[in-house]
Specification:
- The protein is α+β, with helices and mostly antiparallel strands.
- The protein has one domain (2-131): Alpha-Beta Complex (Actin, Chain A, domain 4).
- The protein has helices at 2-21, 32-50, 54-75, 88-96, and strands at residues 78-82, 110-115, 118-123, 130-131.
- A hairpin with a 6-residue loop joins strand 3 and strand 4 (130-131).
- The protein is globular.
Length: 146
């Protein structure tokens, strides 16, 4: 059970950190209109994130970790992400934390795979999956961004 909780907390931290420090918006297109859309998206994202309170982001992280832990306990894995809008597990955690997610709040075209021994994320269109380092048992409840 401890390993499941650690995997869930690691995954939830990664998503919460996208709210704490902004995230990549990658449509996957290599054109001037796509480049402009991504720039406009970054401007909108900054506006969306500026209104978020640290306590609400921490609550999102906690609610998301709880939901992931349930999926890991019941099914042995959790898979979710964002195309342009978040999957239900992310949307539900945000709603429970009273966070308003917009179209640019979380990274576009991003998908995560979680099992008790590994957390991987593909952040952006066609991005390769990368392993997310597990948190340590003594990791603080909230991350710090620089």
């Amino acid at each position: 059970m401890k390993q499941i909780s650690l995997a869930a907390r690691t995954a939830a931290r990664w998503w919460a950190d996208q709210l704490r420090g902004g995230s990549k918006l990658d449509m996957g297109a290599d054109s001037k209109p796509a480049e402009m859309a991504e720039i406009m998206g970054q401007i909108l994202q900054r506006k969306e994130l500026d209104g978020m309170q640290p306590d609400s982001i921490n609550a999102f992280e906690e609610k998301l970790a709880e939901a992931i832990e349930v999926q890991l306990s019941e099914y042995g894995r959790a898979t979710f992400g964002v195309d342009y809008h978040p999957d239900m597990i992310l949307a539900d955690a945000a709603e429970a934390a009273e966070l308003q997610l917009g179209m640019t709040t979380l990274p576009w075209k991003t998908h995560m795979w979680v099992n008790p021994t590994k957390v991987e994320v593909s952040a952006g269109y066609g991005a390769p999956a990368q392993e997310v380092p597990f948190l340590t048992d003594d990791a603080p409840a909230e991350a710090t961004t620089s």
